[in-house]
Amino acid sequence: PSISTKLEERVDVHIDAKNRRRAELGKPFLKPYFKDYAMLQEVTKAAFKSACGDITVAHTAQTISDFSVTSFYEVGLELGLLDKDHYVPYGVYDHLEFDKIDTR
Questions:
Q1: Which pLDDT score, from 0 to 100, does residue 88 have?
Q2: What is the pTM assigned to this prediction?
Q3: How confident is the model at residue 15 (pLDDT cuts 50, 70, 90)?
Q4: Tens digit of pLDDT for each residue in 37-55?
Q5: Do residues 91 and 59 lie in contact, with contact meaning Cβ atoms separated by under 8 Å?
Q6: 3-state SS string for the chain
Q7: Residues 6+ positions from 82 with CB-CB distance below 8 Å
């Protein structure tokens, strides 16, 4: 399968797992656009790394909420598209409280 097919399959697996956890917490499922944003995010990072030879991705928080689009960075790691050392936290917003941002 192509890399985009592999990405889509892994994103779907992650969405299913996240939705099961959300259901256990009594929260609604992730909105359908999460898949689009996760795919856009991971395809873009992989393409830039491929075109440039390297990449540094700055996350907006040290701790990534499991229910954020940012959390899909794990898909790129699983597929070997990026490594953990490609990611750095951007410390300004280390105190984001995702539960207050996403009150659904």
A1: 82
A2: 0.80
A3: very high
A4: 999 999 999 999 999 999 9
A5: no
A6: CCHHHHHHHHHHHHHHHHHHHHHHCCCCCCCCHHHHHHHHHHHHHHHHHHHHCCCCEEECCCCCCCCCHHHHHHHHHHCCCCCHHHEEECHHHCCCCHHHHCCC
A7: 45, 46, 49, 55, 57, 73, 76
Counting Cα atoms < 13 Å in the Cβ hemisphere of 83 gives 4
Beta-bridge mates of residue 58? 88
**Rounded CA gap, 4 and 9, in Å?**
9
Question: pLDDT digits over 19-41, tens only?
Answer: 999 999 999 999 999 999 999 99
Beta bridge partners of 59: 89
